[in-house]
Amino acid sequence: MNKNLSMTVLALLISLSATVHGKEFINHTNMMNHGDGHMMDMDGAMIMGNNPDTLPGGCDKISATKEITVHAGHKYAKKFPGRIFAFDQQEWQFKPCTKLTVHFINDDEIRHQWMMHGLPKYLYPKGMFHLEVTGPGEVSGTLIFPPNDKTYLVHCDISQHMEKGMKGQIKIGKGSGDLPSIPGITAYVIQDDYSDSIPEVNPNPAPSSSATSAQNGADNANGQANDSLISGLTVIGIVLGFAMAPLLAKKFKGMSAGEIIAYIFELVSQALGFVFNLIAGLIKKLTRKKAIELPQDK
Predict the structure, then answer these.
(1) Model's pTM, two decimal places?
(2) CA distance 161 to 165
(3) What fold is seen in the domain 24-172?
(4) Phi, psi dihedrals of residue 34, rounded to the nearest 5°
(5) Angle at 90 (CA atoms; ends 104, 157), nearest 5 degrees
(6) In the chain, what are the domain boundaries?
(7) What is the per-residue pLDDT for 144?
(8) Beta carbons within 10 angstroms of residue 261's beta carbon
């Protein structure tokens, strides 16, 4: 009785230790089939686009049957400076029309995916093949590649996991070139910089000769525009005075001096508003034209 009790306590302690220090590794084999190659279970595993038997268009037969095991986790990123997550491999190559079974193993205690894009949508819903495991565990799925030479992206679509290193490429046949930012294979589009030196920036940079010339040109243009505006206003005022004199004489007939002055001020105000709006538009056009004609800094 005491021996049985000791064994029970020991089993409980082992179970408790596994719960405290990490999640239990689960081999996800009892998947619920939701149709169209979409399967999942209640323990955090999912497969999308599972296709073990239907040939893509252009494939007369399966050219080869292959299996790979792909690990995903933080520890595989250590060989890539600045990366946080990675697959244990970053590149695979197969013949067209190959039937491939992928055993995807998550070695972290968070969710990871092995997602492949660009597949024909008539056969693979959403154009993808997708394996997903939450926490330590394994899930397996199968697909058949199309017959064309192409390079496919595979990555983890969890937020920032791909940007932090969890991506790779699959080349079918000759492939269609390398994809950018594949860790250990191609250069990053935006390279991380871990240097201690930070370039100094002058908060008050001296204006370049071209900028000074442009400013002087703009000032000269504005000065010429102002001079021409004064002379233009004078001419316009004289012309309007002679043109409006006969009409104003008739209009003012019978008005008192105060009414005449008030009416004149109203007319002048309206005329000045119209003229200034017109002039403002001309100044903008002149300034833009001068700026375009100035030589650019090479």
Answers:
(1) 0.59
(2) 7
(3) Immunoglobulin-like (2.60.40)
(4) -100, 10
(5) 60
(6) 24-172, 209-293
(7) 98
(8) 11
